[in-house]
Specification:
Length: 117
């Protein structure tokens, strides 16, 4: 693994660790837009990383693939747990698997302003 790739991977890991909810997305992606709208409509603060607007976006997407096995966006993490994409987010919300009432209230009341990226 190259030094640059290690650095990007560490930045991704730090961003996931430092934020309650992270959405790695692309501005033009309809599923990314739906995921962010869903979180906004649910009053869940999140930290968006628009990888199509970054010079290292391709490296970030590769690091995410290496970490999760998911090639697509959005790529969503809640409390350091990989949720998946938009459909997975909806399923997790509906099943309350990751988003039980206590966790939702903690996320809503916590400041989600920390960021590594």
């Amino acid at each position: 693994m190259s030094f640059i790739k290690q650095g990007v991977t560490q930045l991704v890991k730090n961003t996931i660790a430092d934020n309650r909810v992270v959405v790695f997305s692309k501005t033009w992606c309809p599923f990314s837009q739906k995921a962010k709208k869903f979180l906004n409509d649910s009053n869940i603060p999140y930290h968006p990383i628009e990888i199509d607007l970054r010079q290292d976006g391709a490296d970030i997407q590769q690091a995410l693939f290496d970490l999760t096995g998911q090639k697509t966006v959005p790529n969503i993490f809640i409390d350091k747990t990989h949720i998946g994409g938009y459909v997975d987010l909806r399923k997790a919300f509906q099943s309350k698997k990751f988003l039980d009432a206590t966790l939702l209230e903690e996320i809503r009341s916590s400041s989600n302003t920390s960021s590594s990226l």
